[in-house]
Amino acid sequence: MKNHATVIPLWRRGVLLVAVALCVAPGALASDEGDFEYWAKANFLIPIDETWEFRFSEKLTFGDDGGRLDDHQVDFCFNYSGLADWLSLGLGYKQQFEKEGDGWQVENRPLLNIVVKGKPFGLTMIDRSRFEYRDIEDEETVWRYRNKVLLTLGSLRKTKKILPYVADEIFVSFDEEDFNQQRLYGGFFIPLHEKLRLELFYFWNLDEQEDNSWHDTNVLGSYLYFLF
């Protein structure tokens, strides 16, 4: 006897995943108190050999409802994937210029990435742990740990189709603040060309304030990946 039950195609299931993520984030799109930002970023991924890759990127953040440049970041990273198919390591450096009044506050940030990949329930999972040493101008230096877990439906390297994804990221500062930030993502990876990919996303950011209250920010972004 044939099963006539309707089967939802994988790509539609992915769209549903993203839609659910956007809807369940508390106050994500309709917060009266939250700010709005737009992020734009260009990434250049250059293979060195079969196990090493060099990545360079530049990001701009536009705050005040997307009308003012508030943040400029430049970073690079050397990634090594020769230990195992499911593991890669990255050693990098980021320099951030954040708007402070009429000037810019500079932060230098060496970092280490540990990325674990898996295939739970037929999905692709990427779990990135990042350790950052934050040397901020006129402030005390501090270590910070970030963990981002991303779920999607296929391989980001080989796909020729639109891939929806959801992700969650937490931030932990190694000082008296401890856990102080979280981001909930929903977005799409869109192949534009064999060597060019676009990422469109939304995330809802929660950031703990000095008075222990939480401030939310709605962020829309578009990242370009140039694959050499």
Please, could you describe this protein's structure?
The protein is mainly beta and 228 residues long. It has one domain: monomeric porin ompg (Porin, Beta Barrel), CATH 2.40.160.40. Helix content is 7%, strand content 66%. It contains 1 helix and 11 strands; from the N terminus they run H-E-E-E-E-E-E-E-E-E-E-E. An 11-stranded mixed β-barrel has the order 1-2-3-4-5-6-7-8-9-10-11. 11% of the residues are buried. The N terminus is likely disordered.
Radius of gyration in whole Å, from Cα?
A: 19 Å
Strand arrangement within the widest β-sheet reads: 1-2-3-4-5-6-7-8-9-10-11
Q: Kindly state the mean pLDDT as a whole number? A: 86
- Terminal CA distance: 51 Å
According to CATH, the homologous superfamily is monomeric porin ompg
Tally of separate helices: 1
| CATH secondary-structure class | Mainly Beta
- The CATH architecture assignment turns out to be Beta Barrel
Helix content: under 10%
Main sheet: strands, sense, barrel: 11 strands, mixed, barrel
Work out the count of structural domains: 1
Helix/strand-derived category reads mainly beta
Weakly predicted, low-confidence segments: 1-32
CATH topology: Porin
Extended strand count: 11
- What overall geometry do the principal axes of the alpha carbons give? globular
> Helix and strand succession?
HEEEEEEEEEEE
Question: Which band does the percent of strand residues land in?
Answer: over 45%
